[in-house]
Structure formats: structure tokens, C-alpha cells
Design goal:
Radius of gyration: 31 Å
CATH topology of the largest domain: Rna Polymerase Sigma Factor, Chain: A
Largest sheet: none
Order of helices and strands: HHHHHHHH
Mean pLDDT: 87
CATH superfamily of the largest domain: RNA polymerase sigma factor, region 2, helix turn helix motif
CATH architecture of the largest domain: Orthogonal Bundle
């Protein structure tokens, strides 16, 4: 993104004021520098929202303050657990069971009679109406309804 030279010069000229403002907010030089860098990046990305003729320094200070507040709020919800003391107190370990669930469902579907499985897949997976599924299977819509009902009932038993 190409900045106008006047805007670029004004952004560069405002850096010392931004840095001192950031330093008063966060207290450390490293965090202040990071805050100023983030402010300038956001300002460049959103430069179209800046209205020419208004105070660029005030606009940048508002961006810096908002970034600081957002980071502060996020930081309040986080904490360091370097030694793992908190993690050790957790009662359960998270598991990813989706793959196992998929294989159980696949196995249960394989145990259904083919007519029930086909009716269930057409109505539930392919999202066809009972009439559309009946036309595809060359049978009555009531037959499809009963096959789907029986398939669902059998799946519940197999997966329980």
C-alpha cells in the first residue's frame, strides 16, 4: 500500500509522542515499542478511514489506546503456568473422539439392511424429500418413511 508522502511524514513525526504515550500505559520499553508498531500497522491498513484535515496524532493515540485496552482485557483472562501446577490439577484430559464416533457410525450403517440404509441416506444425507426418495427407489413414499424409521430405530440400538 502506497502512502502519500505527507501522511507518511506525519506518521513518522508522531512516533516519539506515541512511544512516550505507550510507555506511560504499559511501563516497559519493549511493550511500548510493540504497541507503537501495532498502532502504525493498523493506521496504515485503515488509513482510508482517516479524515484529512483532522488531527492525525489524536487518531493514532486513540488507536494505540484501543489496542492497549484490548490487550489488557485479553491478558486478564490469561495466566502463565510455567511449571504446570495448574494443568496438574485438571480432572480430565480432553480427547478427540470424532474419529472413533465416525467408525462406530460407519459400522452401524453397514449392519443395516441395504434398503433401510439407502432410504436413510437419501432422506438424511442427500436431503431428498420422501417423495423424491420414493421416486428414486421406485416404491411408495410410505415405504420410504417406514424404512427410514426402522433404520433410525436400529441405529439407535446399535449405537447405544
Amino acid at each position: 500500500m502506497e502512502l502519500e508522502p505527507a501522511i507518511r511524514n506525519e506518521l513518522l513525526a508522531s512516533m516519539p509522542k506515541l512511544r512516550s504515550f505507550a510507555l506511560t500505559l504499559c511501563g516497559t520499553i519493549d511493550r511500548a515499542d510493540d504497541l507503537v508498531q501495532e498502532t502504525l500497522l493498523r493506521a496504515i491498513v485503515h488509513i482510508k478511514s482517516f479524515r484529512p484535515g483532522t488531527n492525525l496524532s489524536a487518531w493514532l493515540a486513540a488507536i494505540l489506546r484501543n489496542i492497549f485496552i484490548s490487550q489488557y482485557r485479553k491478558q486478564r483472562r490469561e495466566f502463565e503456568d510455567v511449571e504446570g501446577n495448574y494443568v496438574g490439577t485438571l480432572k480430565s484430559i480432553l480427547e478427540q473422539t470424532a474419529r472413533d464416533d465416525f467408525f462406530c457410525l460407519d459400522s452401524a450403517l453397514a449392519n443395516l439392511p441395504s434398503e433401510q440404509r439407502q432410504a436413510l441416506m437419501l432422506v438424511s444425507v442427500s436431503d431428498l424429500s420422501y417423495d423424491e426418495a420414493a421416486a428414486q427407489c421406485a416404491c411408495a413414499a410410505g415405504t420410504i418413511k417406514s424404512r427410514v424409521h426402522r433404520a433410525r430405530a436400529r441405529l439407535i440400538k446399535l449405537l447405544a
